[in-house]
Write a structure and sequence with these properties.
This protein is mostly helical. Helix content is about 90%, strand content about 0%. The longest helix is centred in the last third of the chain and has 52 residues.
Length: about 170
């Protein structure tokens, strides 16, 4: 980042640059330590489950795989919403970091003009915005598992209902 031009630094706030560094490092650390392992494990689990599904009932496997887009679509939409709210959360963190860095680096000016209260109010507003944004992220993430379980339950009920109707004798 230090190799960037002076124009780059003049167009960016200190808080934004610090926030980007801190968040990007944390995200890379999480991706390396957790996401890659989960991706490998879940991929192997998926392949094993699909193979087992075809082993037990190929017709049911085909129905399940053709109806998978109906299940995946809500997950994709929720994922997009998570990314949007997470981006907003990072932007709110940028603002709060900028407000704090601005007050700390300009502490002499703040004290000279008696602006401590004004800076405290600015920080409080930025803090409240970050809190609200993080609560939105949390609510979206907490909705995902129940929605996916509900959709899975509907899919299982639909498949079982089809099998029950086919297995009943006519009459």
């Amino acid at each position: 980042m230090l190799d960037q031009s002076a124009a780059f630094f003049s167009g960016q706030t200190t808080g934004k640059l610090l926030s980007r560094i801190v968040n990007d490092v944390a995200q890379v650390q999480q991706a390396v330590s957790e996401t890659l392992g989960d991706l490998a494990r879940e991929s192997l689990t998926l392949i094993g489950c699909v193979a087992l599904l075809f082993y037990y009932d190929a017709r049911l496997a085909l129905v399940s795989l053709t109806s998978a887009p109906l299940v995946v679509y809500p997950l994709v939409r929720l994922g997009q919403r998570v990314r949007r709210t997470t981006r907003r959360s990072q932007e709110a963190l940028e603002v709060i970091t900028h407000v704090g860095a601005e007050a700390f680096t300009g502490h002499r000016i703040v004290k000279a003009f008696g602006a401590e209260e004004r800076e405290a109010v600015k920080f409080e507003k930025a803090s409240q915005n970050l809190y609200r944004t993080n609560m939105k992220v949390t609510s979206v993430l907490s909705v995902m598992p129940p929605v996916m379980e509900f959709i899975g339950g509907l899919a299982i009920a639909a498949c079982c209902g089809t099998e029950v109707r086919k297995s009943r004798p006519a009459g």
